[in-house]
Amino acid sequence: MHTSLIVSSRQPIFLATLLCPGFQAQGEDVPQRYDYSYQLYQEDLDRIKVESTYIRGQIQIDDSMSFRFQWLNDAISGASPTGVLPGGTQPFLSNVDDVRTGILGALSRQFGDHRVELEISKSSEHDYISHGYALTDTLELNQKNTTVAYGVNYLDDTVSVPKLPDTRKESFDFFTGVTQILDKDTVITANLTVGYANGYLNDPYKVVQRNEILQIPDGSGGFINLPVTNIYRENRPDSRLREVLQMEGKRYIEKANGAVDAVLRLAHDDYGIFSETVQLEWRQDIGDHFQAIPFFRYSHQNAADFYMTTLNGLSASFTPSSAPNGSGPNYSADYRLSSLDAISLGLRLRYQITDHVAATACFERYTMSGSGGGSDVAPEQAYPSADIWTLGLSAQF
Questions:
Q1: Phi and psi for 289 in degrees, rounded to 5?
Q2: Residue 367 contacts residue 346 (beta carbons within 8 Å)
Q3: Going along the chain, which residue ranges are E strands?
Q4: Which residues on adjacent β-strands are paired with residue 58?
Q5: Is it the case that residue 65 has pLDDT exceeding 80?
Q6: What is the pLDDT of residue 5?
Q7: Of 343, 339, 333, which is closest to residue 374 (Cα–Cα)?
Q8: CATH code for the domain of 146
Q9: What are all long-range contacts of 249-255, with beta carbons under 8 Å and residues at least 24 apart?
Q10: Would residue 20 count as lying in a domain?
Q11: What SS3 class is residue 14?
């Protein structure tokens, strides 16, 4: 089940990294680190269920070189909105059943003040294969109080479209960022990503409905007009340019023996979507071995320029293609392209069992709803709410 930033080409899966953010050990690299994580994403009304398993590790080969890897397995089942309106003759939900496996390897080496990393990845499912390559450089300045990072990421994907030939999709991401230590208790970070994708950007399982008239001969030279509801594959543009700016600040509060972590993320693309995300975390140490992290996240986005709940507004002379390629009028009824709000509220827990082993647990309640009204909003039944459980175990030596 392939996903991407803001608007995925398939049903979104809200997966954590191997451990919930903030659980990674602070300080210098350790010779070896291994992590295991299990996550359950369960939407209300048993709509979509995703079980995910991650295994990740990092090995310090010598003073200047390290290797890290990750293996993942996602199993998804349930039903997802098709894009048609509920209560009609066409099905509002369609069954989903798939397994994704992926592997990633990255080798990094220190060259003076620079640390260069090459990353190669591959993920596959029955109808989607993705190959990824990334090259990054991290530069330490100002006695390591300032860190500058920049790099490029490339994805080469093959999409299997039902009843059509396999198609390709390419994605390029260029990113840069800077992290600055202001004092012993404060760190700020700013990152900018510019991404471009081209090729088959549709979701092959999403459709748009249109009310039409079917004319049937009446046997006497005339016709009987029969109203019908037909469905057509969505037709998104065949390219997409996006920009993402993320700013983060962390501040340790000595009197409370805790820290606040605030993130602001702004994203825009030439679909016409602008989104804002705000996240707040409070990291509270309790004793020498326990940490509790309550968090809150809010996101909002406006609808894509070509989002529509039906094709009824297009000219009656326009005939949608059975194999849309991005040309002509663009249209999609995918609720992920609509105007929406999303809220997450949760709690992360970490317990240091020994000097080398830690256990983690995380619960998150996720809700999504339409924002505003009119044609920019999907039917209320399309938006999901879900419980997300994550358990993890990490060891470092």
A1: -125, -10
A2: no
A3: 32-43, 48-60, 65-81, 93-111, 114-125, 128-141, 146-159, 167-183, 186-199, 207-217, 223-233, 239-253, 258-269, 274-286, 290-301, 340-352, 357-370, 385-396
A4: 33, 68
A5: yes
A6: 31
A7: 339
A8: 2.40.160
A9: 249/186, 249/187, 249/188, 249/189, 250/186, 250/187, 250/188, 251/185, 251/186, 252/185, 252/186, 253/185, 254/185
A10: no
A11: coil
DSSP 235: B
Sign of CA dihedral 313, 314, 319, 324: negative
Rounded to a whole number of angstroms, the distance between the first and last alpha carbons of the chain is 34
pTM of the predicted protein model: 0.89
pLDDT at position 246, please? 98
Instruction: State how many domains the chain has.
Output: 1
Cα–chain center distance at 262? 20
Type of residue at 308: M
The pLDDT of residue 29: 57
pLDDT tens digits along 222-249: 889 999 999 999 999 999 999 999 999 9
pLDDT of 25 strictly over 70: no
Residue 73 CB partners (closer than 8 Å, separation 6+): 52, 53, 99, 100, 101, 102
Query: 9 lies in a domain?
Result: no
- The encoded tokens of residue 153 equal 């990421």
Residue 77: domain span = 32-396
| Domain contains 27 | no
> What is the signed CA dihedral for 60, 55, 150, 195, rounded to 10 degrees?
160
Q: DSSP of 128-163, one letter per residue?
A: EEEEEEEEEEEEEETTTTEEEEEEEEEEEEEE--TT
CB 81 within 8 A of CB 88: no
Domain assignment present for residue 24? The answer is no
Residue that is written with structure tokens 């992926």 in the block: 102
